[in-house]
Write a structure and sequence with these properties.
CATH class: Alpha Beta
Helix content: 25-40%
Oligomer: single chain
Largest sheet: 5 strands, antiparallel
CATH topology: Cyclic Phosphodiesterase, Chain: A
Mean pLDDT: 94
Strand order of the largest sheet: 2-6-5-4-7
Radius of gyration: 17 Å
CATH superfamily: Cyclic phosphodiesterase
Number of strands: 9
CATH architecture: Alpha-Beta Complex
Low-confidence stretches: none
Number of helices: 4
Distance between the termini: 32 Å
Number of domains: 1
Amino acid sequence: MRAFLAIDLPDTAREAISRLQDDLKPGRKVPEENLHLTLAFLDDQPQSVLEHLHGALGDLTFAPFDLTLSGLDLFGGKRPRLIYLKADGGAALTGLHKALRGVARVAGIDLPRERFRPHVTLARFRRDLEPGQVAQIGSFLEAYHSIALAPFTVTGFSLFASTLHPDGAVHEELACYPSQT
């Protein structure tokens, strides 16, 4: 099963991001119901491994923390692959990410080493963007580069299954892990 760990966004953030996406012309927008901040992409895992992970995640403790979504950026440089909203949760977010990687490793999931750049994906782009589309993306970045959504408090994260379909991925929450207050 294809799975990932993520922070689900509050409705107010989803709605604000959806309104922002309305002004972005090129690309395949992430549907409002799929907007999230990925903490760890687990790839395809057997059910038994995910059950072991679920048990281990239930023992993880972390305090609630504030998260800010502000500023736009691209992955892919001159040939953008996706546009995203940057996320900042300070040391608490980084610590949660590291703890989740450790729990995943103990559960038998070997995650690739990569720099953690917390973000919420707004849209993905085809590799064959036309120059006019690249210009539209540039204009969008220029217009909204300093956008800032209202901060919110993270009180948990979730384990999601992700099923790929021709129209995009469908995400299903499998379990939620609340913070300790």
